[in-house]
Task: inverse folding
């Protein structure tokens, strides 16, 4: 989604071409999912005839100040973008509408024509943005809920360090929390943490003062540079992770492998060789890897007890008896039909019939059991006996009650 640099680029372009000019015409889309809390007709009436006196931004939100309220406010969402006819404005790489598309675009949610002929449009291809009409945007959510802006309200080292000591969550999740610091999104967080050499899942409160200082330095540098070049990614330094982090594509940066994990609920690119967990988290991660290695070599019985569960001696449980009789499935259509149904019900029917009485559904259409079916049943029990002696013992001793005793463990 558009992050601080892209929204700031839109704000600057719009301010340059609109401040001091009167709104001649406005067209608002009939899309209540994006146009929030006001009808298109009322929205248009609130804009026409007004003069734009300022364009402001906080975090990933922007609003246009008119000579009198209410003011249009924009929450960019996943793919919000500002277009000015005849003017190049940097857009988030996944927000862009083709230059060859009609004007205004079919994705336009708010179109404005100014008295001097300048036209601009706010578009949203994916409809996750919100466009509102507010008397005082900074006094109500979402803007009132935002933390300090990463560009215009940077934290000091002490402020950041003191804040992190109280945050027992992963550092990337914290950077994405707009109430903690506003403007940083997914690609910025990945870039900042890569440059700071901090693992995205490192607990924020565990960072040393030195790491906090490095983190703040990287936040400021990435933010300032991206804004300075109007978020034009082709002008970002070639050694930035940004250029190789998209679409989970395998790759390397400066000869080191890039990996992808989930952090803060988002797909996260990082470089394991450079961004390592530290402290207790490093110890726990080492233990996990050691267990996974042991599981891989030894079949996993000791570690998880799940790898070979279907064939363990505890097969008195219904599900495991069904699994132990796989060989019998090849010997009769009746047993195949049983396995196609609900596994629990299948096992339950086997318990109730024991080894002597086949289920009613296995009878021929004429209603007779016959020697063939009896042989089939005996063959089934023999196969189970060859595979698991304990199962055979259970079946042999079940009597009229089948394996009812095993149901206590089911």
Result:
């Amino acid at each position: 989604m558009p992050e601080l640099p892209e929204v700031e680029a839109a704000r600057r372009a719009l301010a340059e071409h609109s401040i001091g000019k009167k709104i001649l015409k406005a067209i608002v889309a009939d899309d209540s999912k994006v146009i929030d809390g006001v009808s298109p007709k009322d929205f248009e009436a609130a804009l026409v005839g007004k003069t734009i006196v300022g364009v402001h931004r906080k975090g990933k939100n922007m609003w246009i100040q008119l000579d009198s309220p209410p003011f249009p406010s924009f929450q960019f969402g996943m793919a919000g973008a500002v277009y000015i006819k005849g003017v190049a404005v940097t857009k988030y790489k996944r927000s862009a509408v083709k230059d060859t598309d009609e004007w205004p675009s079919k994705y336009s949610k708010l179109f404005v024509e100014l008295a001097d002929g300048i036209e601009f449009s706010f578009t949203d291809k994916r409809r996750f943005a919100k466009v509102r009409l507010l008397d005082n945007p900074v006094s109500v959510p979402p803007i009132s809920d935002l933390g300090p802006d990463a560009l215009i309200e940077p934290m000091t080292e002490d402020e950041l360090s003191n804040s992190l000591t109280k945050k027992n969550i992963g550092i990337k999740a914290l950077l994405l929390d707009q109430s903690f610091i506003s403007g940083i999104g997914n690609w910025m967080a990945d870039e900042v943490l890569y440059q700071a050499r901090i693992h995205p899942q490192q607990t924020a409160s565990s960072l040393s003062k030195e790491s906090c200082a490095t983190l703040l330095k990287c936040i400021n540098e990435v933010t300032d540079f991206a804004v300075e070049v109007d978020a034009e990614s082709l002008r970002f330094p070639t050694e930035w992770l940004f250029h190789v982090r998209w679409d989970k594509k395998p790759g390397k940066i400066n000869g080191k492998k890039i990996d992808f994990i989930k952090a803060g609920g988002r797909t996260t690119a990082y470089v394991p060789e450079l961004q390592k967990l530290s402290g207790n988290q490093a110890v726990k991660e080492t233990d996990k890897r050691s267990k996974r290695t042991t599981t891989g070599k030894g079949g996993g019985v000791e570690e998880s007890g799940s790898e070979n569960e279907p064939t363990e001696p505890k097969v008195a449980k219904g599900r495991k008896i069904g699994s132990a009789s796989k060989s019998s499935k090849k010997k009769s259509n009746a047993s195949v039909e049983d396995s196609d149904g609900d596994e629990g019900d299948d096992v339950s029917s086997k318990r109730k019939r024991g080894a002597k009485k086949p289920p009613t559904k296995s009878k021929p259409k004429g209603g007779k059991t016959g020697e063939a079916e009896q042989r089939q049943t005996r063959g089934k029990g023999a196969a189970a006996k060859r595979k698991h002696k304990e199962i055979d013992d259970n079946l042999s001793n079940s009597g009229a009650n089948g394996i009812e005793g095993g149901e206590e463990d089911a």
